[in-house]
Amino acid sequence: MIAQLLQKDERGMEALLLHYGPLMRYIIAPILPDPQDREECLSEVSMRVWSRIAQFDPVRGSWNAWLTAVTRNTALNFQRSVQHHSSVQSIPEGTPAPGASPEEAMLRAERSAALHDALARLGQNDRALFYRKYYYLQSTAQIAAELGMTARAVEGRLYRLKKQLRRMLGGEGHV
Amino acid sequence: MCDRPWETMTDADFEAMLARSVPDVPPEEIVAEVTPWRRAMNRILFGMALCAVTLNFWCLNYILPAIGTVLLLLGFRTLRRENRWLGGCFAVTVIRAVYFFATLVLNTTILQSAVFTPAVTTALTAVNAVLLLGLYFCFWRGLLAVQKKAGLPAQAGGALALIVWYALVCVLAAVHYTGWIVPIAMLVGYGCILRSLCRLSGALDEAGYAIAPQPVRVTDRCLVLVIAAVLGIGCTLGYLFGGSYRMDWQPVDTSAQAQTETIRQQLLDLGFPEEVLDDLTPEDIAACDGALRVVAVTEDHPFNDGRTVSYKESDGEGGVVSVLDTVYDVRELRLTSVGVQLPGAQETWMVFHHFLWTTDPGFCGTEVLQIWPADENMQDGWRFAGDVTGRVLYDRDGQTFTASYHTLGRQTYTADSVFFGQRTNSDLFAAFSLPRHGEHARGYVAYTAAAVQSGCLLNSWINYTHQQSWLQYPAVTAQTHRMTCTQSNGGAFRTVQDALQFYPADGQLLR
């Protein structure tokens, strides 16, 4: 499939939608609540994969990881554009900015590195919970259903996780 | 947006910062783990593997399927609303789990042998096999439905092979296949099927993203803890209250003793041990009216391991040898056997086997007296000539209580013996439980043997099996242990043995 996509063979696109459509939909769903937006976003993700397939480097990471990143970023951009056009709601504070100044970019890189170190020291389950919440942007209800927990139990774990991260990152006072 | 340092951020700012600071590309292990499917599927596959494994040591034949059943429950619970087939899997798993866990608890009581009679066991095995085949059929159809929903081509051959595999196992069990080759081939086949299912699970990861797990009211952890707690409490109650027979203890009626006073005196004059005579029912004493002779033997037996002593003694040739010996400072059980010759044209003996706990017997579970009667030991010389009688007694606060045996009578059974191989026996069994608070626990069994030809040895054996500990699984009674185990002193039980052996012609004991 990847070879076909690299050769711009349309059968690669069909295979992509057949085999990875569920994965892409799974990532898009928590970010875009509207079903029509999701379908449009899926088309956009497919086009982005088609156009940027050359950037995929198996040495740097798996196909699934790359596709996950492309799908998530496309969905977030789609969300911003939808909200920009409607101008009804403000963009949630947690959403990454479309463009950042060099200072902001540097600051963000430093924080990412610090967070990366802190996440590496977490247990596997806590790390996965963190990514579900802050990377996949899944709702508490979805996390709870997929992990066989109640929403309240997930909230409790997230609270403790944030407290632990704040401690690890050097600021305990406000949680 | 806030760019303040971590330590000065508010909670909302901190959370926003976390969302902005996540890496662009998630780590590989996170990508693999964040799926609504794999966790449930892994549990199901592990559960299936553990439920199929039967390792008959360290109770692993119970522990592994118990873990497997819990994993199946959790796995199918996640997927139960995905389609009706997976919902069916969950329903079947719940039914099987209830049956399995109830059996685990029941196995801590001696009721299990009464409940699981051969007919019930056969019926339950058949139902279980049907449920199992139903489970795998639903699982197969459920996988196909998941693939169809995701628009992927249907392929779930591994699950289909599982159905065929279990059907073959059922056929082998039904025909009582005892060979080795087919089971080994089946075991290899099962490994291949599980490998195929693991691969299928990997392939189904693509389709698995399309499923939507249902929210739960009770967490997986909570469910596991509840199951563990129910099992723990159930088993504890089972061991506490289901490990002994219910005995109908009543105060002894001493008024009837006066009617047999004359016969009692006759028996005492003939040498009948008084402490045994005091425990006999008036009916049994009356049955000895006109007794001609009494032969009795008493011996104390230990139910402890004693202590090992070493000493030197002469070897008889001028040398000295070291000897290791076990010395018993306490011998807890006194066994007395008495033969009473009854009047009549035909030579008839009434045989009494009496036991008395001289100290606290310790754990009170189930006990059994197994009598190898004279007619069983020497069929040409003696025949059984009357009912088996007897009772159990104990003292408490100066009052004597008595009860009938829980079961008393002749049992025919097939036993495996190291010395004699497989053989059918017909012995007398008296099963009972001792009271937890009481002293001088005692009892006896009596039967009558008539001579078929004169001059034959009267040979009557008593085997007393005592349950020393609650620690056994599944729980069996002393009688079942005695009838099925080749080792008399193993696990929770210990047996002592004594015999009444004499030639009626002279009444001389063989020892």
Search tags:
heterodimer, A: about 180 residues, mainly alpha, B: about 500 residues, alpha+beta, 6-stranded antiparallel beta sheet, elongated
N-to-C order of helices and strands of chain A: HHHHHHHH
Q: How many β-strands of chain A, per DSSP?
A: 0
Outline the low-pLDDT stretches of chain B.
none
Q: What Rg of chain B do the Cα atoms give?
A: 33 Å
Gyration radius of chain A (Cα, Å) is 18 Å
Percentage of residues in strands of chain B: 25-35%
Percent in helix of chain B: 40-55%
Q: How is this structure best described in words?
A:
The complex is a heterodimer of chains A (175) and B (511). Chain A is mostly helical and 175 residues long. Helix content of chain A is 72%, strand content 0%. Chain A has eight helices and no strands. In chain A, helix 2 packs across helix 3 (35-52), helix 2 crosses helix 4 (63-86) and helix 3 packs across helix 4 (63-86). In chain A, 30% of the residues are buried. The model of chain A has no long low-confidence stretch (mean pLDDT 83). Chain B is an alpha+beta fold and 511 residues long. Helix content of chain B is 41%, strand content 25%. Chain B has 16 helices and 16 strands. In chain B, strands 1, 2, 5, 6, 8, 9, 10 and 13 form an eight-stranded antiparallel β-sheet that branches. A six-stranded antiparallel β-sheet of chain B has the order 11-12-7-14-15-16. A two-stranded antiparallel sheet of chain B has the order 3-4. In chain B, strand 11 and strand 12 (421-432) form a beta hairpin. In chain B, helix 3 (38-52) packs antiparallel against helix 4 (60-79), helix 5 runs parallel beside helix 11 and helix 7 (118-149) runs antiparallel to helix 8. The chains are: A mainly alpha (175), B alpha+beta (511). At the A-B interface, helix 2, helix 4, helix 5, helix 6 and helix 7 of A face helix 1, helix 2, helix 4 and helix 10 of B.
